[in-house]
Amino acid sequence: MIIDGKNKILGRIASFAAKKALEGEKVEIINCEEIIITGNKKMSLKKFKERRDRGDPHKGPYYPRMSDRIVRRAIRGMLPYKQEKGKVAFSKIKCFIGTPKGMEEVIKLETRPIRTKDFLRIKQISNFLGAKTNGR
Question: pLDDT tens digits, residue range 119-133?
Fold first, then answer.
């Protein structure tokens, strides 16, 4: 199953992908940098910065900077990833920046239109955290 994340809300995609992975399907999410987080921009950036700065760089907890890894981490939070079934489900999830070649069969995830003007894209959060996007 391939899901296009463009202009979709992160929590809704993450819960859908987690449920499908627990059912045994392979889930691939493309355009992860275009996924949206709604809410106050300053508060969202502050929350992600606090998550990134928490802990020790040698011991953890580690929080990702890249947009595909941020989405994957959000999906992990909706899985029982410490149990065996959660580990198996989490291994079936792949996230991509942009659209890789050969992914034409995109599943249209039906969501309500976004009614708020106050939102951030994962790309903006990733750049704020200091991701090096030029190398990819």
Answer: 899 999 899 988 876
